[in-house]
């Protein structure tokens, strides 16, 4: 019986134990790439308040958070795919597809709002399933699969719309993206997109604490070992793609509120989401990163662009800055996560003779913060 127990303990990956006071643990977390993005958000926020005093108004801050919510939701969806070791380049095209679908299916028919939302979610899930199954079962790199999906959906949207705006759905549907709870003290309004973001963030934290989330991170860290453990990689990765497409769908629903129905809505969102994820310290290649850090990366990115605007930097520099952020964030986070790993302890003769299991190297993060 003792032999079986020792074998099971040795095979089970262990996470580093929480040590020290709460303050010490928070400080240690802030020193990681996933924690550092929250410090970056605070620094950028203070910088904007100094350069633009109007930003100190609580109402302005809450409205900024509402406008950023769709990007943060898309970033959380992209997180699931990236942390599993894949990419999803189809997010922007999925958003455009859903926006056009809302405009053409719902239109001005009040009774089609709920069926329209259900239809959009189903379409989003199907796109995710196709991306996931082609990537996992046919062994086509996800970069190629989602690039093909992006081109196919973009072409379809342009064919349907002729490249022009096709009208807007009924105003009650658009209120999901541009409305909110009115007459709230201090902030005046709490935007619906912000409420949806908070709900999805809470659900994401819960999901990443579940076996699904931990297994998804383990797949990104070491797919071969996870496969040997009996976890169906195709199933987990396909579900990650589904979550990504559903996140893009929710972002599309929100964007209809203030962007209307146009084939260009969502353009570039896939790169913005990837930038937010890597800025949040999530390691490209998978296995490292926290889901809330991906959302925080979206806020840091938008705060940075807002700061540049307030400083008079032309908006034409936006893509250049975004590209530099991707390069720098990937380099820094990869190095930081590598340094943060604990080395594997070499078993001593005493350990071997006593049958004491050695401490495995820490290979994953829980992804729940």
Structural features, described:
It is a multi-pass membrane protein. It is found in: Cell membrane. GO terms for molecular function: transmembrane transporter activity. One of its GO terms (cellular component) is plasma membrane. The chain has 16 helices and two strands. With about 375 residues, it is mostly helical. The protein has a single domain, classed as Orthogonal Bundle (ABC transporter involved in vitamin B12 uptake, BtuC), CATH 1.10.3470. A hairpin with a 3-residue loop joins strand 1 and strand 2. Helix 5 runs antiparallel to helix 6.
Draw up the topology in text.
Layout: H1 2-11, H2 22-30, H3 33-51, H4 58-83, H5 91-106, H6 113-136, H7 142-161, H8 171-178, E1 180-184, E2 188-191, H9 192-209, H10 211-221, H11 223-228, H12 233-259, H13 269-279, H14 291-310, H15 318-340, H16 349-354
Antiparallel strand pairs: 1-2
